[in-house]
Amino acid sequence: MDRVGKVGRQTDRPVFSSQNSSNNIKYELYIIQYIWLVYNFHRTPFALQQIVFYEDRNFQGRYYECNSDCPELNTHFSHCNSVRVESGAWVLYERPNYLGYQYILTRGEYPDYQRWMGYNDSIRSCMIIKNTSGVFRIRVYERPDFGGQMLECTEDLNNLPDRWNLREVHSAQVLDGAWVLYELPSYRGRQYLLQRGEYRRFNEWAAMNPNVGSFRRVHDF
């Protein structure tokens, strides 16, 4: 009986294995493909991002929904006093063609322009911010062309002068993620978006001077 039992298991095994093995492989391939599609869908820069601009405060008045970069918003509304970021992270510009003051907004509600530290109600262009998840790493330098002292960070920095004893950043390298530099400590003052790449002089991130008081990562939660 023991021999029959063993033989029975051996003869049954290939029949069971060949059918289910093929099905299992197909199922696993299906799951892998599904996960890949979902993963890439969520990482596609223009797949899910959406922002809504309102002409009046508290999300009142004429509004415009946007889900892509736009160099000319003035055809859709004359002024902007509130914003609702449905998804993604965005940089808003005071002037057309991505010029003027920059304002970095992540998911949430902004019932008046002071909530995004705006200087006025003028928003004339906008852009989706990429690389807002995963690893973050930035290097800032004392002098142009990556010269002088260097500070590397992977976390937000509330007060750069306290950490570095310097108030000026003349060049920077963004190795991972997206970062926003602030002119003053505690994330105040003019904002400058830095995405992955090299910035040999401060004017390459559209700054008028090298003053940097704080910086932080741009997260898309």
Automatic annotation (TrEMBL):
<dbReference type="GO" id="GO:0002088">
    <property type="term" value="P:lens development in camera-type eye"/>
</dbReference>
<dbReference type="InterPro" id="IPR011024">
    <property type="entry name" value="G_crystallin-like"/>
</dbReference>
<feature type="domain" description="Beta/gamma crystallin 'Greek key'">
    <location>
        <begin position="49"/>
        <end position="87"/>
    </location>
</feature>
<keyword id="KW-0677">Repeat</keyword>
<dbReference type="InterPro" id="IPR001064">
    <property type="entry name" value="Beta/gamma_crystallin"/>
</dbReference>
<keyword id="KW-0273">Eye lens protein</keyword>
<dbReference type="GO" id="GO:0007601">
    <property type="term" value="P:visual perception"/>
</dbReference>
<feature type="domain" description="Beta/gamma crystallin 'Greek key'">
    <location>
        <begin position="88"/>
        <end position="130"/>
    </location>
</feature>
<feature type="domain" description="Beta/gamma crystallin 'Greek key'">
    <location>
        <begin position="136"/>
        <end position="176"/>
    </location>
</feature>
<dbReference type="GO" id="GO:0005212">
    <property type="term" value="F:structural constituent of eye lens"/>
</dbReference>
<dbReference type="Pfam" id="PF00030">
    <property type="entry name" value="Crystall"/>
</dbReference>
<dbReference type="InterPro" id="IPR050252">
    <property type="entry name" value="Beta/Gamma-Crystallin"/>
</dbReference>
<protein>
    <recommendedName>
        <fullName>Beta/gamma crystallin 'Greek key' domain-containing protein</fullName>
    </recommendedName>
</protein>
<feature type="domain" description="Beta/gamma crystallin 'Greek key'">
    <location>
        <begin position="177"/>
        <end position="219"/>
    </location>
</feature>
<comment type="similarity">
    <text>Belongs to the beta/gamma-crystallin family.</text>
</comment>
<comment type="function">
    <text>Crystallins are the dominant structural components of the vertebrate eye lens.</text>
</comment>
